[in-house]
Write a structure and sequence with these properties.
Length: 252
Amino acid sequence: MNPPHWPIVWVIGASTGIGRELAIQLAAKGSTVAVSARSEEKLKDIPGNTHPYPVDVTNASQVQGVAETIVRDVGPIDLAICAAGRFTPLDIAEFNVANFTDTMNVNYLGVIHALASLVPMMRKRGKGHIAVIASVAGYRGLPKAAAYGPTKAALINLAESLKPDLERDGIGISVINPGFVATPMTAHNDFPMPFIMSPQAAAARTIADLEKGKFEIAFPRRFVVFTKLGRILPYSIFFWFSRRFLTSPSAN
Ligand SMILES: NC(=O)c1ccc[n+]([C@@H]2O[C@H](COP(=O)([O-])OP(=O)(O)OC[C@H]3O[C@@H](n4cnc5c(N)ncnc54)[C@H](OP(=O)(O)O)[C@@H]3O)[C@@H](O)[C@H]2O)c1
């Protein structure tokens, strides 16, 4: 086997879905993978050379403590993937503020907590790579995603802002923007999910593009083309598309 691209990897949000698959596939490629999320039992079940480090990303000091423990136990982190996230569709009939705060706390501030522990370590070494999972839902506002989409738009903007500064210190950053992926997060969605992919395919695509050093990793291509076009299309056409393909009949 070739030596792994990243000897030591930390996947945060690895207990299920895309993060779990990333951990399995990276371990299969020879990396030693520290895996984090809240569900310790699920972390222990991840096959391959993976090591559970439970954490709640909303707790900054816990994240810092876990990052330091991983470095002490396993070694310096070459690649960290921030995959922890939550999505609860927003029902405008119950404009639930907790949905907004909880989603921002996990999806956005959770990444900030990880960065706060990782950046000083990586700056000291003058190397390391950080990958943040945002979403195509961060490109434009999509139906039912009013609590979720803004957190992902913020992550895309965050990664763009940090890239030049991190690069100067030898640290790479990537932003991963998946379309729909069949995971526990999307299992109960009652709206159409065009071009939905398996978590295995999403993880394989992510790793291949990370190995190429890409900044933005977005898939599947057909859905990304539509959503990116949506950024430059006039609102009338954008909303036609959104109503036609992304809104369930009951919501019309
Ligand atoms: N599935 C899609 O269609 C899709 C599309 C675009 C982007 N994404 C993004 O991809 C990432 C992975 O999502 P997924 O689809 O794989 O969903 P998932 O299967 O629900 O995985 C979410 C992961 O985040 C962890 N997590 C949630 N809250 C956490 C917290 N407070 N602290 C630590 N870990 C926490 C969960 O573990 P615990 O519950 O054990 O803590 C789980 O490991 C998310 O950022 C999501 O927004 C997904």
